[in-house]
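note to self: dont lose this again. the chain is below, predicted strucutre after it. 114 aa total, dont forget to put it in the shared folder this time
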Amino acid sequence: MSVTTNAPSHADHATVGQETDATPGYVPVELAGYPVRALPSQRWRASHLRALNTGDLDAFAEGVLHPDDVDAWYDGDPTQDEIGAWVAQVAEAGGESLGKSSGPRASSKTTRKR
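---
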């Protein structure tokens, strides 16, 4: 898959940063020095998580980043540490910490098979 958007130069980061703040449905975060917009972690699809868990980081990024910001992923060429920090930053910006879910609650009613 070929993405043909223009990635911001380091001089254009401030301008792009202003644009990232005003995009509904996305949270503004920084990735490897580039301001980008990402879907909040609550809106990541199962296919996005499968790509992340299987190590297909490019497919993951293409799925969760705003289409205009995908080139920043390739231009920034983030390290594993930067990716981990970015994923945590997206979760925090969206109001949730990944891996801290309380899980399903136990039912207050007892059930019995007949």
